[in-house]
Predict the structure.
Amino acid sequence: MGVSGNGDRELAALGARLAAADTVLRNELRGRWRAALAPAVGAVKTAALAPGVPVRYERGLRKELAATVRSEVSLPVTGARVSIVSEGKKMPPGKRNLNRDTDQGAWRHPVFGTEAQAAAGGRRHGRGWKWVPQVWQAPGWFTVTNVAQQAGFAQAAQRVLDDVGHWIEHG
């Protein structure tokens, strides 16, 4: 998510001034950025909780996806960086790519044989895996939602830039 207009140049200038700023001001800026990102983070989490597959197949997947979403704020000397991220490493083992895959709308996964297939002489569990496609009924829960939040975030970001710039210049 970016800030258009003079936002990028102002962020770079702000980053240079922040390099000389005290820790209290830097922490205040981080808090204000997180507050500015909070509505967008909430919207992404809400979108993750929207039904994406029939409920009988899901087994908590939406809650797991929502739990991976957070804001990230860093203040390097070259500027400020604010992001909304969905971290696959926070997903349970075997599901670490699902935040990306569900956002894109489809993925493949193994299914196992059933007792009926085993009774009929078929293979199951371990050797009888079959890979099948899975379609997520609400693709774009992350990217589309972030784009929709961009205008509101840009306004909040500009307010943060104005406030902190005023603090730096006027004490």
Residues 111 and 130 are 5 Å apart (CA to CA).
